[in-house]
Amino acid sequence: MHKEFLMGNEAIALGAVAAGVNLVSGYPGTPSTEVLETVAKRRADAAYVEWSVNEKAAMEVAAGAAYAGARALVTMKQVGLNVASDPLMSLAYIGVKGGMVVLVADDPGPISSQTEQDTRHFAFFSKIPCFDPSSAQEAYEMIQEAFAYSEKYHTPVFFRPTTRVCHGYASVTVKDADEYTLHQPDGFTKDTGRWVIFPRLSYQNHIKIEERNLTLAEDFSSYKRNQIIRSDDLLDSSGGIAGFPDSKTGRLTAPRKGIAAGGISFTYVMEALKAAGSAPVLKIATPHPFPERLALEFLDGLDEVLCIEELDPVIERELIHLCGRHHLPVKIYGKLSRHVKNAGENTRDSVSENIRGFLAQKNESAEGAADLPNSPVQNGAPDLPVRPPILCAGCPHRASFYAVKTAMKGKKTIFCGDIGCYTLGNAMPLDMVDTCLCMGAGLGIAQGVGRIEPDTHCFAFVGDSTFFASAITGVVNAVYNQADMTLIILDNSTTAMTGHQPHPGTGRTMMGEIVTKIDIEAVLRGIGLTTVETVDPLDYEASVSCVRRVAEEPGVKAIIFKSPCIAVTKPSRSMHVRPEKCISCKKCIRELGCPALIVSGKIVSIDASLCTGCSLCSQICPTGAIVNGKEGDGNE
Predict the structure, then answer these.
(1) Per-residue pLDDT at 374 exceeds 90
(2) Which among 509, 537, 562 is the end of a domain?
(3) Of the candidates 41, 57, 263, 86, which has an alpha carbon nearest to the alpha carbon of residue 159?
(4) Closest CA to 466 of 446, 440, 486
(5) Residue 374 region by backbone torsions, left for phi larger than 0, else alpha for psi between -120 and 50, else beta
(6) For 84-96, what is the mean pLDDT?
(7) Distance from the CA of 271 to the CA of which of 2, 53, 439, 583 falls in 20 to 30 A?
(8) 365 lies in the same domain as 403
(9) Among residues 121, 161, 146, which one has the least CA distance to residue 35?
(10) What is the pLDDT of residues 147-162, one digit of tens each?
């Protein structure tokens, strides 16, 4: 064993490697992405890793591996689980042979997602066990245990870290390479009675699943990650409570109050109790099947319990259900009772405030709680400056949006966006994203609006990675049903938003293999489009002309704006402003919104540390004041 300073996702990946994982598939999505990338770097030679075309494909690849007795891991974020839910729901009934862990990273906040979806509900919905780690160290150990449980009960299992577990760093004790499990798949055994899903088989398996989950609930009541932590467990050698205020301070709560928590919220609870007082704590590491016997032991003798969890009141509802079923006179508080906020992520400060309020209620010994250190009221820290997300300086997407906006000026249009960097095209001054629902949805939205408003020019924007992941079926639908719309593909040669992962159009795989690029234009023509044009968005006049021409064509047509992401192709020289020519019209700033363009005195200036030399601003400057940096790399 040795220690490494790791991001939570790295710890999870190393835990999977230590468990002898044979195959890892997934689709990139923050906050899950680094798990698969770390496995790719640290995997055993025989292990296989791939970025699949989308989450559904990833789920099915992992299932096939698990059918063959392999240990398989599939990774995604919470909204990706929606895409993968079709195979998942049936897989719950079919089961697996080798261990299969479905890692779904939830994003409370949300910080980088379109929803605050709680994967624990999917565990209940699909009847699949769920593991909920509370720290990087626990995540490293727990994922190894998750593989073992999966194999023991022949079922896929969820592994649900949240953003602060995924992206927090800690010193983690990990195994040496010679301590890793070596898992050898024994291959697929043909058995149509097991692997072919029919209604009769599903009915029989449903009965077995319900019985299995009762067994699992009992098993989880003895699982070491589920714990009751009492004050007596924390006594130090002097008789005081280690890490807690001494009882003489008057801060100890009445013994009939308890706290239930899971995931990163449990870590916050334990930190908060060091200042707020002591109370028995129920830690739930497996929210489904719920460890009922352990929970009943915890509830015995208590009057009130505060539940602290992310995102939904899953633990809270389970405890309310238990109290009702067993006629226990225990009041359960949390999100449902509005004692804890019911949206957004928990923080150390918010949990401290929740606990202080709960322990101080009808407890005069806690009157001093307002003087506790690190109180959000006491620390006086200023609010962080607002930093709205914007497209990077030199991003080719800015040029693409601006060309379409210019070409369609004065015409009735709708611009349907999608998930990716280009969602940021909604910001002023571009204001070029009228709708955004989920990956690939822009094509369907454009078709729907076009059917109701035939006089509207309907545009759908999609990135190159998203085109392969979820937009192709939308194009097929548009062609088949004879829609009238313009598809704009923003091809920057990477999956930029999640960290520049490869996709089928990049010509390489996650295993480092060089493969044939899948040609987007050829795919579109194969689907049936006759008008498909490719243009460099950084050529402003050519781009505007292309949009005007193509938009007037009938039926489904496409423009591929092709220019690499600035993080993929670095610039060699920045632009600069010739002050004697600048008339301070600020057209470049008002219409482009590039962060490299700033006002210096009465004229426009360019921040050379940000400018990529894309030259878009120089092409719209009415006086030719913006030129390539031939007179120096900085500003004049």
Answers:
(1) no
(2) 562
(3) 263
(4) 440
(5) left
(6) 94
(7) 2
(8) no
(9) 161
(10) 999 999 999 999 999 9
Q: Which two tokens stand for residue 264?
A: 């990163």
Q: Is the dihedral of CA 118, 123, 125, 126 positive or negative?
A: positive
Cβ atoms within 10 Å of 297's Cβ, excluding its own? 13
Q: Which among 379-393, 425-439, 551-565, 570-584 has the top mean pLDDT?
A: 551-565
How far apart CA 435 and CA 415 sit, in angstroms, is: 7
| Structural domain boundaries, residue 533 | 396-562
Beta strands in 389-504 (DSSP E): 413-416, 457-463, 485-491
Give the per-residue pLDDT at 483: 94
Q: Looking at the structure, do residues 439 and 360 belong to the same domain, yes or no?
A: no
For residues 448 and 584, membership in a common domain is answered with no
pTM over 0.70: yes
Q: CA 501, 506, 511 angle in degrees (round to 5)?
A: 60
CATH code (residue 623): 3.30.70.20
Number of separate domains in the chain: 4
- The CATH number for 93's domain is 3.40.50.970
pLDDT at 290 over 90: yes
Residue 567 lies in a domain: no
pLDDT at position 37 over 90: yes
Strands 597-600 and 48-51, bridge-based pairing:
unpaired
| Helix, strand, coil share of the chain (percent; to 5) | 40, 15, 45
User: What pLDDT is recorded for position 380?
Assistant: 65
Identify whether 569 is part of a domain. Answer: no
Q: Does the residue 390 lie in any domain?
A: no
Does 60 share its domain with 193? Answer: yes
pLDDT recorded at residue 244: 36
Which residue from 316, 15, 56, 57 is spatially nearest to 161, judged by alpha carbons?
A: 15
Contacts of residue 369, defined as CB under 8 A and 6 or more positions apart, other chains included, come to 251, 276, 277, 356, 359, 360
Clarify whether residues 173 and 114 are in a common domain.
yes
Average pLDDT, the chain: 88
Query: What value does the mean pLDDT take over residues 113-140?
Result: 94
Q: Could you give the C-alpha distances from 16 to 24, 286, 570, 632, in angstroms and in order?
A: 9, 18, 35, 51
Residue 636 within a domain? no
Compute the C-alpha angle 599/602/604, nearest 5°.
Answer: 40
Question: 245 with 293, same domain?
Answer: yes
What is the distance between the alpha carbons of residues 278 and 231, in angstroms, rounded to a whole number? Answer: 7
Sign, Cα dihedral of 328, 333, 335, 336: positive
How many Å apart are CA 107 and CA 581, to the nearest integer?
49
pLDDT, tens only, 167-178? 999 999 999 999
Q: CA-to-CA distance for 18 and 6, rounded, in angstroms? A: 15
Backbone angles phi, psi at 6, to 5 degrees: -130, 145
Closest CA to 486 of 435, 402, 439, 546: 546
CB 596 within 8 A of CB 607: yes
Tens of pLDDT along 301-354?
Answer: 999 999 999 989 999 999 999 999 999 999 999 999 999 998 999 999 999 999
User: Of the residues 536, 562, 588, which one is the last residue of a structural domain?
Assistant: 562
* Phi (first) and psi of residue 630, to 5 degrees: -75, -25
User: Bigger pLDDT: 254 or 36?
Assistant: 36
pLDDT for 382: 81
Distances in Å between the Cα of 554 and the Cα atoms of 479, 486, 514 are 12, 9, 38
